[in-house]
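Exercise 7. Given the encoded structure of a 192-residue chain, write a plausible sequence.
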């Protein structure tokens, strides 16, 4: 068995006092002092994101300030972390929007559960929920992180409505609005 002798180099006085590593670290610091920084002054400056960025989900209203959501529960059913909670209500028969079946009496999104996946936006048939560009979501308690309907409308604002479900053309015949099913099809009333 051959054993090879290795000569140890005794460190000099500069290496024993760690002056060489300190000066090497200072050189790295000096080199970085003259490179352009990526740091931003956050509250005054905000980062701009691309058009496909998905921020906080928000409810939107149409141009005339009406709720676009009809409480169909599609977003609630498709939400993987179960962050959306909807409670529906019906319009009164003498209300001007009576031809729309329902509206969300309570619409809440728990932002602590939301994973910003965008499935709620894709599932919505009325284009009432959108992923906004807002990315700063803060709250001092868990209760403040459950956004109610008013907070979601503040974030979302208004968007043009291409569906126009409130227009006269979309309503259909005036005498058919919310008629009983037996009145619409009297032949099948009471069974087949």
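Solution.
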């Amino acid at each position: 068995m051959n054993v090879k002798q290795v000569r140890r180099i005794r460190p000099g006085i500069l290496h024993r006092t760690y002056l060489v590593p300190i000066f090497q670290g200072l050189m790295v610091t000096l080199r970085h002092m003259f490179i352009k920084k990526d740091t931003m002054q956050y509250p005054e400056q905000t980062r701009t994101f691309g058009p496909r960025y998905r921020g906080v989900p928000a409810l939107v209203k149409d141009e005339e300030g009406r709720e676009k959501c009809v409480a169909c529960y599609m977003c609630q059913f498709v939400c993987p972390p179960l962050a959306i909670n909807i409670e529906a209500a019906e319009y009164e028969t003498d209300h001007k929007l009576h031809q729309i079946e329902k509206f969300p009496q309570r619409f809440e999104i728990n932002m602590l559960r939301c994973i910003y996946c965008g499935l709620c936006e894709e599932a919505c048939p009325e284009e009432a929920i959108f992923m906004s560009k807002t990315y700063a979501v803060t709250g001092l308690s868990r209760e403040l992180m459950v956004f109610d309907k008013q907070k979601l409308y503040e974030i979302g604002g208004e968007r043009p409505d291409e569906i126009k479900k409130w227009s006269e053309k979309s309503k259909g015949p005036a005498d058919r609005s919310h008629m009983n099913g037996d009145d619409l099809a009297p032949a099948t009333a009471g069974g087949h």
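Remark. Helices lie at 13-16, 19-33, 74-78, 119-123, 149-156, 168-171, 181-184. Students should compare their own answers with the one above.
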